[in-house]
């Protein structure tokens, strides 16, 4: 017993260290209500305009039941990480209220570590708040330069190259 006496004081440290790594990898530091905030049609305009003059903005409206949304999602996360100093991604989940937990799980699995949004209210006012040209089809992406001018918008899924091309155009204004 004496020979293992020096190990005992380190156990609390090991447990705390292990819990810290597990907690960080699962939660990425944000609580559920910070990771996926409710947003109305009026609120989304305020969120987007808060970056005007500071960063380009990529808005992506998606849902867990939308296959093209899920397919393109990692490309957008990669762009946010690559251009974090010049770009802010605004993800808006259009999932049904009963699917909120599924949306949270998906965001965590994609390593999203910044606040995102969950659409509330009626669809038409939300669609109109984002774009006069959007029919409501998903996924929907809109990219603004740092002056708030629209650089591109589209209603279909896209590959990394398309996202990066318009992101660079928005950043280089």
Structure characterization notes:
- With 173 residues, the chain is α/β, with parallel strands linked by helices.
- Helix content is 44%, strand content 18%.
- The protein has helices at 11-27, 32-35, 41-49, 67-82, 100-109, 123-130, 160-171; strands at 36-39, 56-62, 87-93, 116-119, 140-144, 150-154.
- A 6-stranded mixed sheet has the order 1-4-3-2-5-6, sandwiched between helices.
- Helix 3 (41-49) runs parallel beside helix 6 (123-130) and helix 4 crosses helix 7.
- The longest helix is centred in the first third of the chain and has 17 residues, at 11-27.
Brief sketch in words of this structure:
The protein is α/β, with parallel strands linked by helices. It is about 45% helix and about 20% strand.
Task: Draw up the topology in text.
Blueprint: H1 11-27, H2 32-35, E1 36-39, H3 41-49, E2 56-62, H4 67-82, E3 87-93, H5 100-109, E4 116-119, H6 123-130, E5 140-144, E6 150-154, H7 160-171
Parallel strand pairs: 1-4, 2-3, 3-4
Antiparallel strand pairs: 2-5, 5-6
Helix pairs in contact: 3-6, 4-7
Major pleated sheet? 6 strands, mixed
- List low-pLDDT spans: 7-27
| Rg, Cα atoms, Å | 20 Å
Note the total helix count. 7
N-end to C-end Cα span? 69 Å
Order of helices and strands: HHEHEHEHEHEEH
Helix content: 40-55%
User: What amount of the residues lies in strands?
Assistant: 15-25%
Q: What sort of overall outline do the alpha carbons produce when their principal axes are compared?
A: globular
Count of distinct strands: 6
Structural class, judged by helices and strands? Answer: alpha/beta
Q: How much is the average pLDDT? A: 88
Strand order, largest beta sheet: 1-4-3-2-5-6
